Amino acid sequence: MNATPPAAEPLPASQPPAPLVQRGADDERTLLVKVFGKDRPGITAGLFATLGEFGVDVIDIEQVVTRGRITLCALITPPATQSAEGTLRVTVHRWAEGLRLQAEIISGTGDNRPRREGRSHVTVLGHPLTATAVAALANRVSEAGGNIDRVFRLAKYPVTAVELAVSGVATERLRAELAVEAAAQRVDIAVIQAGLQRRAKRLVVMDVDSTLIQDEVIELFAAHAGCEARVAEVTAAAMRGELDFAESLRARVALLAGLDASVTDKVRSEVRLTPGARTLIRTLQRLGYQVGIVSGGFTQVTDHLVELLGLDFAAANTLEVEDGKFTGRVTGEIVDRAGKARWLTRFAEQARVPLEQTVAIGDGANDLDMLNAAGLGVAFNAKPVVREAADTAVNVPFLDTVLYLLGITREEVEAADLVD
């Protein structure tokens, strides 16, 4: 953690800065007051009470507490006279010494300039997150012409998640540069353009098999039909993009012909939610998001998941049943690669949410159109072809890590759970 946090971002246009901020323009002097030492209650109040005696205006504040050590920075306008400024410096140092803190006061100009163009949020997930990985990523940012303005921890478990505010380089270029380094360092990274649109994601649609749940549903059915190995082989090829999904689906479903449909209850009981799935959905719903699933699997299972998790939307294939047995066919519109993207669009229309404000999560090649159509596409423990094409990839086995990509911290999630 740097001892000197950078100046804060300017207020958005909807909240125009007060006139006092204009006194900190690029060509005027400012004072940067830095205080650091053992944290305790009252330090922030004490510093600003001390500064208040000199009639200065506050331009920027930044404070960080790490393992009980505080770093507090205040960017202020100088007092009216040189004499008063000298007295301020002496007074601040005496106040700090009385609390066994260290203080530093730096004079300068141009301290409050707006961030450079090209601003991005970079979320880094590591399990663990090594110092070597952080160094390599920071070096890539620098080589791309960017600057790390701020670093903020989002979570310390089950993965370490940090967010970097980066300026000075276009988001697309930064994403391309960091994707290469992230793969080399075996960490996950998401690069999202800064701005209000990041906060505006209001609909999340996810794949089911190997995303929301740990299983491939058709393989669970196939295990009861005695053809699991044959089905698994075809499924794997389809997810890698080596086979047309619709054709592979028909071939696999045909192997279920004659299986008693009552096995559905057993299959439902065998389904295992992905770790973090309930937390992800519960947190999104608290925030007013609508949540849906779209699956190349079957309504015989997804209907149960909708009820279990309180989902808003769902689409899947349906196994045809005659005389209490599966016929080996599906009925209605097949939910394939193109179909998943169509259902995302339909869900967005029903939710009255623009596609730009949607998040799609998936792992297979048949999810690619949906991931590319969404405002943010997340490849979750995905096949290589999917990781390379998606906006971002998460390769840890916890579905709730997607929350960190939206800027939601682990502490906020846990605090909300405690309230309930």
UniProtKB/TrEMBL annotation:
Cofactor names: Mg(2+)
Pathway: Amino-acid biosynthesis; L-serine biosynthesis; L-serine from 3-phospho-D-glycerate: step 3/3
Source superkingdom: Bacteria
UniProt protein name: phosphoserine phosphatase
Residues covered by the ACT domain: 32-108
Keyword entries, A-Z: Amino-acid biosynthesis, Hydrolase, Magnesium, Metal-binding, Serine biosynthesis
Organism: Kitasatospora cystarginea
Amino acid composition bias (Pro residues), ranges on this chain: 7-19
Upper lineage: Bacteria, Bacillati, Actinomycetota, Actinomycetes, Kitasatosporales
E.C. number: 3.1.3.3
Keyword Metal-binding tagged: yes
